[in-house]
UniProtKB/TrEMBL annotation:
<feature type="compositionally biased region" description="Basic and acidic residues">
    <location>
        <begin position="1"/>
        <end position="20"/>
    </location>
</feature>
<dbReference type="Pfam" id="PF00160">
    <property type="entry name" value="Pro_isomerase"/>
</dbReference>
<feature type="region of interest" description="Disordered">
    <location>
        <begin position="54"/>
        <end position="89"/>
    </location>
</feature>
<dbReference type="InterPro" id="IPR002130">
    <property type="entry name" value="Cyclophilin-type_PPIase_dom"/>
</dbReference>
<keyword id="KW-0413">Isomerase</keyword>
<comment type="function">
    <text>PPIases accelerate the folding of proteins. It catalyzes the cis-trans isomerization of proline imidic peptide bonds in oligopeptides.</text>
</comment>
<protein>
    <submittedName>
        <fullName>Peptidylprolyl isomerase</fullName>
    </submittedName>
</protein>
<dbReference type="InterPro" id="IPR029000">
    <property type="entry name" value="Cyclophilin-like_dom_sf"/>
</dbReference>
<feature type="domain" description="PPIase cyclophilin-type">
    <location>
        <begin position="108"/>
        <end position="262"/>
    </location>
</feature>
<feature type="region of interest" description="Disordered">
    <location>
        <begin position="1"/>
        <end position="33"/>
    </location>
</feature>
<dbReference type="GO" id="GO:0003755">
    <property type="term" value="F:peptidyl-prolyl cis-trans isomerase activity"/>
</dbReference>
<dbReference type="InterPro" id="IPR044666">
    <property type="entry name" value="Cyclophilin_A-like"/>
</dbReference>
C-alpha cells in the first residue's frame, strides 16, 4: 500500500511538473504571439507598399485582393529558428576545472561549486550569463515547502516564464543513481539543479536550490553543490514559508540576487 506521506510527495511532484509545463506553454504562447505580431506588421507593410504601387486590384464583386508578391512577403515574416533564438554561448571553460558561483543576495550569500567535467554546457552557460550581469537584480520567484523542497531562481522576469533565449542540453542525469520503483531519484540537500519545461534538453537560466531531500524524476540536470553557508541561507528563507500560506509560491522572505559571480577554483 502507498502511505499517506508517499501519496503527498507524489502529488507534490505531479503539481511541480504540471506547473513547469504550464510555464512552458505560457512562454510558447508569448513567442507565438510575437511571431504573429511580426508577421502582421510585415503583412501590413507589404500591403501599404502594394497599395502605393497599384498591386491591389478589385475583383468583379468590388472586393480587394493582395497580389502574389504581397502574399509572399507576409509568409516570409515568420523567423527561422536561428533568427528566433539567441545562440548558446561558445564553450570557453576549462572542462577539467571546477567553478564556483556566488550569489550575493539580500538574505545572505549563496555559493555553490559547479563541476565543468560533468556539466560543461551548463557551467559554461552560467559563467557566460553571470559575466554579462544577467542574474543581477533578479528574484528567486518560487519556494516549495510541501513534498518538494526547493527555492527556484534565475528568471529575469520573476514569474517563471523568463529565459536567455536559448536552451542547453540535459547533463549528468545519472549522477543521482538508479530511479526507485516510482521513477524518482532523491535530490539531496545542497543540490543545485536546472529547471526545465518538462521536455528533454529544455533548460535555460532557471535553476533550483534543494534544501531538504526531494524526490523527483531524474530529468533535472544536477550541476552544483551549495556550501554550508549557502544551504543555511536557503533554509532560513524556507522556514519563513510562502507568501499567503500554502506550500508553493513566492517566498515570504523576498530573495533578490544583488550580484552573481562565477570564478574558476
Amino acid at each position: 500500500m502507498v502511505s499517506s506521506d508517499q501519496r503527498r510527495r507524489q502529488l507534490a511532484r505531479e503539481k511541480f511538473e504540471r506547473q513547469q509545463q504550464r510555464r512552458a506553454q505560457s512562454r510558447k504562447r508569448k513567442q507565438r504571439n510575437t511571431v504573429i505580431a511580426a508577421a502582421l506588421a510585415v503583412a501590413l507593410a507589404a500591403g501599404a507598399t502594394a497599395f502605393a504601387t497599384g498591386a491591389f486590384s478589385g475583383d468583379d464583386d468590388g472586393k480587394q485582393k493582395v497580389s502574389d508578391a504581397g502574399s509572399e512577403a507576409s509568409q516570409s515574416a515568420e523567423p527561422t529558428p536561428s533568427e528566433a533564438k539567441s545562440p548558446e554561448p561558445a564553450l570557453s571553460i576549462d572542462k577539467k576545472a571546477a567553478y564556483s558561483m556566488k550569489l550575493s543576495t539580500n538574505q545572505g550569500p549563496i555559493a555553490f561549486t559547479m563541476d565543468a567535467a560533468k556539466t560543461p554546457r551548463t557551467a559554461n552557460s552560467f559563467k557566460a550569463l553571470a559575466g554579462k550581469g544577467y542574474f543581477d537584480g533578479t528574484k528567486c520567484h518560487r519556494l516549495t515547502t510541501e513534498g518538494i523542497y526547493v527555492l527556484q531562481c534565475g528568471d529575469p522576469k520573476g514569474d517563471g516564464t523568463g529565459g536567455p533565449g536559448y536552451n542547453i542540453p540535459d547533463e549528468n542525469l545519472k549522477a543521482l543513481g538508479k530511479p526507485a520503483k516510482d521513477g524518482t531519484v532523491t535530490y539531496p540537500p545542497g543540490t543545485v539543479a536546472m529547471a526545465n519545461t518538462g521536455q528533454p534538453n529544455s533548460g535555460g537560466s532557471q535553476f533550483f536550490l534543494v534544501y531538504k531531500d526531494t524526490k523527483l524524476p531524474p530529468s533535472y540536470t544536477p550541476f552544483g553543490k551549495m556550501d554550508a553557508e549557502g544551504l543555511k541561507t536557503v533554509e532560513k528563507v524556507a522556514e519563513a514559508g510562502v507568501t499567503g500560506g500554502g506550500g508553493d509560491g513566492a517566498p515570504k522572505k523576498t530573495v533578490t540576487v544583488e550580484k552573481a559571480v562565477v570564478t574558476k577554483k
